[in-house]
Design brief:
The protein has 13 helices and twelve strands. The protein is of the alpha/beta class. The chain has two domains: about 160 residues, Rossmann fold; about 130 residues, 3-Layer(aba) Sandwich (Rossmann fold), CATH 3.40.50. β8, α9 and β9 form a beta-alpha-beta unit. The longest helix has 15 residues.
Length: about 300
């Protein structure tokens, strides 16, 4: 699946699922083109619903469909899926114990030129507060397709952060995934970089190369699931290396950094920790490269955090 857009992998998997299960429906808030689901609408005109620019209502409709036995996949930009439709998703879908599959596209700085209003740094932290809600973030087209099927199989609501555009593949098509299980991309003994999302997983891989030139052997972990986090994997590398740097495209307060910090604290694990991500700032307009530099999310920034822990 070389350089396939992640949104295309999402749509193709939805079409595959819908061809087998007549209960699969797709809802969009006037963003089928942006989310890449026009193909689903063409394949299943009666099961592709454009709710218009009314995200909260879309989630409410998805909840109603779920209550009647359907499996609704609802998608919109992550800023609207979280901030605008949060109460409906919290109450109508999760509190009601229904089966709504919500997808927030363009997570974090990937919103780029859509700017600060469309830049969801807080969707992951917000969704973490919903009891029992799995939160997944695939890092390439292969994992995007796999997690689309996994959330379909999951009994209950889910939230997926989905990078829309194409990225270089990390996994081959034979890779197996599970909600709540991370992947060790490279082993290492001196430190562990635990990354989440299409942008920061790749920066973590680059950071490992920078660190290797300094004689530092860093492991790279694609955590894939913010909640439930892979506790066993995190704790094993905390014990093995004694140093962890988290890297995420969202607020570290309430995000991956907070999740790892809580885990280390509650288990009494002795491990130094540093966090790369958004530190209490709003989004803004810019290229992805400029935004990564501004928010100190580059491979160089990750490597510097690791070197800081080595001292």
């Amino acid at each position: 699946m070389p350089n396939k857009e992640m949104r295309a992998a999402y749509c193709d998997k939805l079409i595959e699922l819908a061809s087998k299960d007549p209960k699969v429906v797709v809802l969009e808030a006037d963003l089928m083109k942006a989310s890449g689901t026009m193909g689903f609408k063409k394949a299943f005109p009666d099961r592709g619903i454009d709710a218009g620019i009314a995200e909260a209502n879309m989630v409410g409709v998805a909840a109603g469909l779920s209550a009647n036995g359907y499996i609704p996949f609802a998608a919109t930009f992550g800023c609207f899926a979280s901030r605008r439709a949060y109460d409906q998703f919290f109450l109508s879908a999760n509190y009601a114990k229904l089966n709504v599959k919500l997808t927030g596209t363009d997570p974090g700085i990937s919103a780029a030129f859509n700017g600060g209003t469309h830049m969801p740094f807080e969707d992951g932290p917000l969704m973490r507060m919903i009891p029992g809600l799995p939160i997944v973030e695939p890092s390439d087209a292969v994992s995007a397709a796999a997690f689309t099927e996994l959330v379909y199989q999951h009994k209950g609501s889910t939230y997926m952060r989905l990078h829309r555009k194409s990225v270089d593949p990390i996994y081959d098509e034979n890779e197996k995934f599970e909600i709540g299980q991370g992947k060790v991309l490279s082993d290492g003994k001196d430190a562990a970089i635990i990354a989440l999302g299409a942008i920061e997983v790749r920066e973590a891989i680059k950071a490992r190369g920078i660190l290797a030139s300094e004689g530092v052997d860093a492991a790279v972990i694609d955590i894939l699931t913010l909640k439930p986090i892979d506790r066993k994997l995190v704790l094993s590398y905390a014990a093995k290396t004694g140093r962890i740097v988290t890297a995420e495209d969202e607020q570290v307060a309430g995000g991956l950094g907070s999740e790892v910090s809580m885990l280390l604290t509650e288990t009494g694990t002795a491990c130094r920790l540093a966090m790369v991500g958004i530190h209490d700032e709003f989004g803004q307009v810019g290229t992805t490269d400029w935004l990564m530099q501004h928010y100190k999310m580059t491979a160089k920034d990750i490597a510097e955090k690791v070197m800081g822990l080595m001292k």
